[in-house]
Structure formats: C-alpha cells, structure tokens
Design brief:
Blueprint lengths: L2 E8 L5 E5 L4 H10 L3 E8 L5 H12 L3 E6 L2 E5 L10 H4 L7 H10 L1 E5 L12 H9 L3 E5 L2 E5 L9 E3 L5 H11 L5 E5 L5 H12 L3 E3 L5 E5 L4 E7 L4 H14 L2 E5 L7 H9 L3 E4 L3 E5 L9 E2 L11 H8 L4 E6 L9 H7 L3 E5 L2 E6 L7 E3 L3 H13 L3 E5 L2 H4 L5 H7 L3 E8 L13
Parallel strand pairs: 2-14, 3-13, 9-10, 17-18, 21-22
Antiparallel strand pairs: 1-22, 1-23, 3-5, 4-5, 6-8, 7-8, 10-12, 11-12, 14-16, 15-16, 18-20, 19-20
The chain binds uridine-diphosphate-N-acetylglucosamine.
Amino acid sequence: MRTLEKYVINGGAPLHGEVEISGAKNAAVAIIPAALLVDGVCRIENIPQISDTDMLLTILAELGAKVSFINRSTIEIDCSQARYQDAPYELMRKIRASYYLIGSMLGRFGSAKTTMPGGCNFGVRPIDQHIKGMTALGAEVDVRGGFVYADALGGRLHGARIYLDKVSVGATMNIMIAAVLASGRTIIENAAREPHIVDLANFLNSMGADVRGAGTDTIKVNGVDKLHGGTYTIIPDQIEAGTYMVAAAATGGEVLVKNVIPKHLECISAKLRETGTIVQEYEDSVLVKGASALRRVNIKTMPYPGFPTDMQPQMGALLCLARGTSVITEGIYDNRFKYVNELRKMGAEVQVDGRIAIIEGGHPLTGALVQACDLRAGAAMVIAGMVASGQTVVEDIHFIERGYENFVGKLQSLGADIEIVNFPEEPDGSEKILAIS
Ligand code: UD1
C-alpha cells in the first residue's frame, strides 16, 4: 500500500538551542548546471541535501557528467565527457532552476532544449528576460509546445549589452552562465544583486571565468576560452537561516542560528527587531530571542537588499501572533498569498486584496489539517503549527523538502514536537483520513 508522508506537529514548544544552516539552495541550483561549462573536476562544498539539488545532479549525470559524493555536503562533478542530448524532461519540469540549463547547455554545446521551468506557482512566471538575454548573445530561441529551443547556430555565443526590463535573479544568473564562454564582453544592466548572484560569479571566477560587478546592478563578463576545475564552497542559505530566525521568534524561544553571513540577513533581522524580537549578530551566527509580546509591523518585499519575497509567508505566520494590524505588500509576485487560506483554517484573521495582505494579529491559532501550497508557504505552515494549540498536520511536504535540508531533524533538535508520519492511502487511491486531535 502506498503511503503519503505528512508532518504532524504538536504546538506549544518554544525552540531552544543551536541550528546549523546548510548551503544556499538558490546558489547551488545555479552552480550545479554551471559546472557543465567546466573542463575538469569541480569540487563543490556545502551543497544542501534537498530534492532540487538531487534532481539537477541527476539531470547532469544523464548528460554524461560523473557525479561523486565525497561526503554528505561535498560533491565532485566532472563534465569532461558530457555530451549534448535531450535532458530528462520529467525532472526539468519539476524545478524552476532547470532554466539554468538553457544558459549552460548553450555555453557548452551551442544548443539547448529544455522544458519550460516548473517550481512554485506564484502566478505567471515568464522567462522573457532570459530569452532576451540569450537572443542578444546570438542564440535563436523558440518556445513551443512547453519546450524552449535555443541554438547558437553552429557558432559560439558573442558578448552583448543587455538591459533587463525587470530585475530578475534567474535571468541575471542565466545570462552570466551563458556569457562566460562567449566571445567578447557582456554587460548586464539592471541586474539583480542577491547574495547567490555574487556566489555564482565567485564560483565561475574560481574556475577561470572573468565576471566583475556581481552584487551591483551592472555585471561585466569578459568571455574566456575555457574554464578549469577547482574547489568552491557555497555560501549559507539566507532563507533557511531566516526561517529558523522567524521560528525562534514565533515560538518565543532562543536559538543560535549558526553558519550564516549576518550581512545577508540584515533585512530579516531588522524586521524581526521591529517586532520586539532580540537579534544579536556575531561573526558567523545570529542569536534570536523571542519577545514576550510581538509588535505589529508592515512589510514590503523587494529585490535584494530589500525584504525577500521568499521570507514573506514565514513572516505572515509570525504576524498572526502580533497584536494589531500588519500589512504585507508583495512586491515581486502576483499570487503569493495562497497560504493565507491555510492560515485561516487555523484561526488567523487575514484579508487579501491583490498583492496586499492585512493581518489582524493576536487571535490564537489552533491546530488543523493544512497544505504546504509551495516551498516557503509550507515552512510558514510548520511555524504556525509549532505555535498553535493542539495538533497540526501539514500535507504536500514534498514542496518543503525541495528547499530545506533535514527540516524535521533540525526542528526536533531545537525541541519542536514534529515528526514525519506515513499516512496509508486507501486501495482506491484516496487517503485514509486519520483522526487528528
Ligand atoms: C528566484 C528564486 C526564487 C525567488 C525569486 C525572487 C531561484 C531558483 N528562485 O526565482 O526563490 O522567489 O528569485 O527573489 O533562484 N520575471 C519576468 N520575466 C523574466 C523573469 C522574471 O517578468 O524573464 C518576473 C517574475 O515573474 C517575478 C520577477 O520578475 O515577478 C522576479 O523574478 P525572478 O527574480 O526572475 O525570480 P526567479 O529567478 O524565478
């Protein structure tokens, strides 16, 4: 009998202790495809063990890369025998970051065929800026039947000046990847500035690329003929760290979040302090101490260094506990408030109007059967479950496991009462509903 895994959480336990943050998902999911450009062995340290990186490593292996795990978080990728072929579409469709294969396959083979990317559904997520960039670099790009076909027309891509009409993390990184082995200089204007953009540039440079200006809104890539192997360590995950910080604040606990770059967390630390939470920064850790009463705050999500959209649902859960009215304005996506319906099942009072959510905080949350609508929404439901009275069951946890390494184990080590439970499916395919108290 097939089973469905869900998280079962008994709320009420404040989190206490220390948690070690893993490598950054959004850096790893670009660096793994970028390894295709390297002629030699890339040793990559601090790879997070999450399903998104597993899928990308499987895709690279299908393209002929040799992938070896040296230990839990260190891998070696040798793409010297990689060859052009159709990549596994079923896997590509599941992840957003498969769009980086357009840039890396074009750079390596002069040609790419990928599916339109998958990932979390926050409304329409076009890739027109990626296509604009690849076209400017000399590729012919065609989107039909759910596939993206890109072809450098038998030649090498060439440098170009590209102004992004929208600040896009994915387009900035994809163009960087494609431009590294192009002839001449590429200039990306109105580039995104997220920490993982700097990390990708540092990875590429450590393998022999010449990328300058990452972290500013103008990035210059001087094309080189070849990249060589090397060793690179991925930065800690800003959003994973932020999630544990919010979880500590929400449960009124005290958690030392270790292996972080506090500078990358400033936008999150600042908002938490406004709620009355104490955040102390150390060299590579932050200590978060929950307040006895949380204060309301307003949040607007923006590209880095603004408040990250990927922390919006977790903060939404936290603000349900703060007395008074908080307003969240989603500045990146059209539809990132689906999780609000799940919070309402737990007693939250939230109104949504387009890109704005108005949270009337201070109503007690009670356990319920809720869904993880997407990766970060799932983390928000776990946070809500840890503060609610009674038991919460979170369904569709595969979303959460796309982006959080050992989420349950880390939370348990902080004292949370959470476990993964296998719920049997009925023979007709429906699930058996187990009573939850
Ligand atoms: C990346 C992150 C995701 C995060 C987002 C914003 C990865 C794998 N995912 O997603 O977790 O939420 O950055 O920080 O790194 N847009 C266009 N045209 C494009 C590209 C984007 O209109 O060609 C729009 C998007 O619909 C969105 C905005 O630009 O409204 C920002 O998107 P973008 O920064 O590209 O996000 P992703 O790279 O998809």
